[in-house]
Amino acid sequence: MGETRLPRHMFLWCLSAIYMFAFASLYVQIPGLYGNEGVLPARWQLRVSGKSVVEQLKDSPTLLWFGPRLGLDTQQCMELLSLTGALLSLMTLALPVLRDCRVFLVLWILYLSLYQVGQVFLYFQWDNLLLEMGFLAILIAPMKMPWSTKERLHDNVTFWLARWLLFRLMFASGVVKLTSRCPTWWGLTALTYHYETQCIPTPLAWFAHQLPVWFQKLSVVGTFVIEIAVPFMFFSPIRRHRLAAFYMQVLIQVFIILSGNYNFFNILTITLCMSLLDDQHVNFWLRRYMPKTESTSLQTLCSWLAVVLEIGTYALLGYWSVRYFDLQVDWENKSISSRTAFTYFEFNGFLKTVTVPSIWIGVLSLTWEVISAMFKCACVRGVLWRLWNTIQWAVMAAATVSMFAISLVPYTYIEYDAHSNLWPGIRTAFEATDRYQLVSSYGLFRRMTGVGGRPEVVIEGSMDRNTWTEIEFMYKPGNVSAAPPVVAPHQPRLDWQMWFAALGPHTQSPWFSSLLHRLLQGKRDVIRLIQTDESQYPFSKQPPAYLRAHRYKYWFSKPKEDGSYPQRWWRRVYVEEFYPMVHLGDSYLEQMLDQHGLKDKAPPRRSSNAWLPQLLRHVGKHAREMPTPLLLWTLFSSAATVCLLNSLRSLARHHQHESLQNKHADKQETGWNVAEEEAKKHEEEDVKDDAEEDGKEQEEDATSEEEQEGEIEEEVNTEETDVDSLRKRKQF
């Protein structure tokens, strides 16, 4: 796998946003859910037993044990932890310098502390997933030191854990749909019920529910392919396989986001999908084209082989889909028919065949990343730097292998033989770390509920037992004329538990008796869970004297015969009484509270007037006045704006730095050109000087020759004169 620096930054940025959503969403609900006068007071989970703080932390690892030392009760301490987590994650979202492993360690500890006392309202799979991803972020995020470098050679090793978690999540979610023997999943009709029976649908769910049955069944086939077959492509050595798997996983998550309010769960899954990307593809998104290098003949051959394998993989996926789901095109009706063409026992045989090999595929993939990182460390220059990188590699590789080993325990829950054959030492390690939620088992949408109609509990109140008024919740279906809301990434935890409560008798949901008790008492914090705007609550001025609950069955309304939309979103039918009529002091209500231990045995601790409790009350009063989804998106938009401005500023600085470098390079080129011209001028001048000197030498030589010739002529003339004088003397 190539470099993953940019995908890691995206992973940490998205996780910071999710932490902010989770902390802020929980913060506004703490008084009504866990307050001293809430549905399930958290102080009941922290009984004073005379143990030391260390022993208390071993029994329940939560920072809430330190609340009394700060002068805070359990509710105020929970508010402090959630508010601190929201602010810290908001700053981490906005400022890259805070995306450090120590910051993510603090965020993980804060959320784990809240999870330990969250009881039924925090026991959702996405809470476990957030804790596991949060712990992985501690290993993935850098530890920024003055002497640290930007490149950490072990990053691909720790980031691999996110890919393994994504595989476990998706593969298990696909497998449990079939191992549960749910007839809707085996009959490929699950989506014909899903859109109207999910907890809090969106308005688009109504339109998706109206799609033809053949398309709904084909969508189920696509779900099985994406969740069971495609995850094996996560570990493919072919880069385009991983990218194709990324887009298929993101596609199904986007469809779920559009049709249902699943808080931050789908964002968590998309964040895990970042582990399938590399820097090259992210640069392609950002239009940063990398320079192409010339490929050798061997590389060209390997690329063609990869293309053949890629096409063969897609062909196999298509062939298996057609064969095992009996896909046939009906040209007359313009549809595609499908059915499950295998049995439960055949699927169990398939599961036994692939579970253990899938583990070995993970082992081989992790081994490749570990060895690649080791060779990179061995190639570092400098003895000290090589030693430092090798130590980091050894520590992180050991941590990664340990996390992979203990994750095999919850992963193999899907297949009994593989689970029973695990090494006992791995089980022991898992049991020792289970309380910290380092790894968990997953399996979403195991069974499709509401096949005969969506069950829904409707609470009614009365002052005289004659006139009854329905108490409408902000988010869950109630009023048949109210449109489904869009609340993600906020999770209204009471509305979610109301959906679960409707699936069985009220005795399976003990907290429901406590809810009715608090409403009869008129507790404002609990009322705000139902309606933030208390004017919308029918008993805002005076609490009801009597309460009761009925079970209805809801269905989406159908379009009219002329194709126009109906005036109502829902239609409903009364089914039965869910909870009998009760009032304060009612014997049945008191019996239920006593049976489930929901009555206060001791009065709550008095609220302190110190500055910290007063500050918490002041912040909470103003924060809870705004609708929670609006609050979450406001915080996110603010942090994203700061992050965008920082990115633009750094980009401007980068361009400025590049321009300065270009100017400096131009100056250097200009200097070289001037120097070359001057050198040429000097050469020409030297040539001219040499020519002039040569001319002068030639003139001097010519002058000396003329002088020599003149001297010779003078000598000859002198000799001739002497000869003439001798001749004259002889004549006389």
From TrEMBL:
One of its GO terms (cellular component) is endoplasmic reticulum membrane. It holds the Pfam family LMF1. The keyword Glycoprotein applies. Residues 658-669 have a biased composition (Basic and acidic residues). It is a multi-pass membrane protein. The chain crosses the membrane at residues 12-30, 80-98, 105-124, 214-235, 264-286, 298-322, 359-379, 391-414. One of its GO terms (biological process) is protein maturation. InterPro entries: LMF (IPR009613), LMF1/2_C (IPR057433), LMF1/2_N (IPR057434). The keyword Membrane applies. Belongs to the lipase maturation factor family. This is Lipase maturation factor. It comes from Cyprinus carpio (Common carp).
